[in-house]
User: What shape does this take?
Amino acid sequence: MGHDVLNAEPGAPTVGFVSLGCPKALTDSELILTQLSAEGYKTSKSYAGADIVIVNTCGFIDDAVKESLDAIGQALDENGKVIVTGCLGAKTGDDGRPLVQTVHPKVLAVTGPHATQEVMDAVHRHLPKPHDPFVDLVPEVRDQFRGSAGIKLTPRHYAYLKISEGCNHRCTFCIIPSLRGDLVSRPVGDVLNEARALLESGVKELLIISQDTSAYGVDVKYRTGFWDGKPVKTRFFDLCEQLGQLAQPYGAWVRLHYVYPYPHVDEVLPLMAQGLILPYLDVPFQHAHPDVLKRMRRPASAERNLERLQTWRSICPELVVRSTFIAGFPGESDAEFEALLAFMREAQIDRAGCFAYSPVQGAAANSLPGAVPDSVREERRARFMAVAEEVSVAQLARRVGAQMQVLVDSAPGLGRKGAVGRSYADAPEIDGQVRLLPPQKISRTLRAGDFVQARVVQVDGHDLIAQPI
Ligand code: SF4
Assistant: This one.
């Protein structure tokens, strides 16, 4: 299942979870646990050592009400910080007041069933998780989504869907395998059930994450699972195909993160060309020179990445590629760094981020010879970003005049003064945005979670400015 306390890094805040009730409540529990784990919280099935406890309750029959109220009382006694969700949360007592608060006024928050987002908001309020760029899969949220007290309020219309835990690679700069162990793929039926529940709850964009999305199912030898009464293989392509088909009737987007440039990834490009999956790939290349990639022990380091990108673009010309790179890795020579810049220019990576190499405690790369001086690492990072910017701006400039579908992320005042959204080319938090001008028709309103068609009128840095049509 991958929600185990062992899968999170030490020091991460821990959420204890008590799940009572029927199979529907269990689905809710799964959704909450997966979001918690996607955001890097530790989860545990006991109160011991937990920083906060969530009790998912049942309110169907009197016995269940009593069991739930007792469980809340016990959690309050043993832990003190308790969030209540589930059917009992929606129940009122004889006096018409919410039952849970009447009996247990000390609970921090109460929601009804199917309220993953409200539960997550309550967790963020009472137990914020510090962002760790080295181990977190989910990016740090930008200011626009923070509440007044700096509280993270993930917009309700996108959700992270974690498909596996851990990683079979041993990149020398990374400590994730030692923290989280080898790859454990979630059963394909569980992932698809969760996707469906998210879509049914109104999510418009599923962000598929894991440490190595393209390796999905390797650990279980691509075992055939079952979903909706039919066999489905635990395999990257099959999962993408099912997710795309599932999202289509909802008009929702499916976006793939952390995909390595393996040959089998070619198979999903037709799904993108058909519009089932967004033509967007987040491929963490980290470097381009084969010797540096070898010293990094990167997955797919022997692949011909430029050729692979060309193949992908020939199958799906709209493809947008985002990537991250490391400048100044131990032993990186001037020539190796120049090769990275040349790759960047030639590969036309639409969106790129770059870190100056910095040792992570416990990583094997720390003992590699040839440490690059800090000032050189930083200077290379800046040079890399200048090239990345050139490439990105040129790519964006080609969009002026084009019509794009935009998912609105925020639209204060019903968007009458404009709104902020993203196109398929922008993942939340890490890429650019599409700034929407006020709609020309005065009666037209915009809301977060709406899809709108808009014509791009201008490029502004990493963002586009567009007019809703
Ligand atoms: S692929 Fe490499 S960088 Fe990514 S989690 Fe695995 S070991 Fe770490």
